[in-house]
Design goal:
The chain has 234 residues and is α+β, with helices and mostly antiparallel strands. It has two domains: 76 residues, Dna Ligase, domain 1 (2-Layer Sandwich), CATH 3.30.1490.20; 114 residues, ATP-grasp fold, B domain (D-amino Acid Aminotransferase, Chain A, domain 1). 28% of the residues lie in helices and 29% in strands. It has six helices and 13 strands. The strands form three sheets. Strands 1, 8, 9, 10, 11, 12 and 13 form a seven-stranded antiparallel beta sheet that branches. The chain has a four-stranded antiparallel beta sheet with strand order 2-7-3-4, with helices on one face. Helix 2 runs antiparallel to helix 4. The longest helix is centred in the last third of the chain and has 20 residues. The radius of gyration is 18 Å and the shape is globular. The termini are close together. The C terminus is likely disordered.
Length: 234
């Protein structure tokens, strides 16, 4: 399996119709300064700055800064880039548009011996691990197509209702399409948020692909990453 960092992972979600915030991956303060001059969303939006490396617990490591204006984001980018953490040097950061929301959900697609499991929960973000009993799933055997009725039953079993249930069922259909068509082994979106405009938006992406399938995907122009920030090698 080959790990894909958040930026290209979000790009794959977008390819299959899942909404994400505006975002940019940068490797220098100068690059960020240039981007901020030509992208209105960087000038007008509250921003999130995160280390763009194969790291866990970025919040605990102080490598996620939220609710920043452009000036504060420039400071965060400058402070993160080049930071040394044991054997890892932060060489990239991802800057994204903050999305105003009240609810956070969880969704994932996971490869199994017989096919794929789709997982969903009404509790996302940092709450999901302590509420894993609330995560519901449906199994799809290899070669099968998930039905709308099965998706509707899944999201209702997880506690979604009304318009949000219909939106989450559609979100999961797109997530499964991404997983299936991109030769993925695992795709997790945590959190999925319900924006103030009533749209489900993916705020993060954890993606594992079949690295040996790269020859089938000419648009996989991104590098793979190992679990601990080293370059991926076969």
């Amino acid at each position: 399996m080959a790990k894909v960092l958040e930026g290209p992972g979000m790009g794959l979600l977008r390819k299959w119709g899942i909404s994400t915030p505006n975002y940019a991956v940068v490797t220098s303060s100068e690059e960020f300064d240039q981007l901020s001059q030509v992208n209105d969303w960087l000038q007008k939006s509250k921003l999130v700055v995160k280390a763009h490396e194969a790291l866990g617990s970025r919040f605990k490591l102080g490598l996620v800064k939220v609710g920043l204006d452009l000036a504060a984001a420039k400071v965060a980018v400058r402070e993160m880039l080049g930071k040394q953490l044991e054997t890892i040097t932060i060489r990239q950061v991802i800057v994204s548009e903050a999305v105003d929301h009240k609810e956070e959900y969880y969704a994932a697609a996971k490869s199994t011996r017989d096919g794929v499991d789709l997982l969903v929960a009404t509790c996302g973000g940092i709450e999901v691990e302590s509420n894993w009993d609330k995560v519901k799933h449906v199994s799809i055997e290899t070669g099968e197509t998930i039905t709308d009725s099965a998706l509707s039953s899944l999201v209702k079993d997880a506690g979604f209702s009304g318009d949000t249930a219909a939106k989450m069922a559609e979100f999961l259909k797109k997530l499964h399409a991404c997983f299936d068509n991109e030769d993925a082994q695992y795709v997790e979106v945590n959190p999925v948020v319900l924006s103030g405009q009533g749209e489900l938006v993916a705020l993060d992406a954890v993606t594992l692909l079949d690295g040996d399938a790269k020859f089938r995907h000419k648009d996989w122009t991104f590098p793979f990453a190992a679990e601990f920030g080293r370059a991926y090698t076969k």
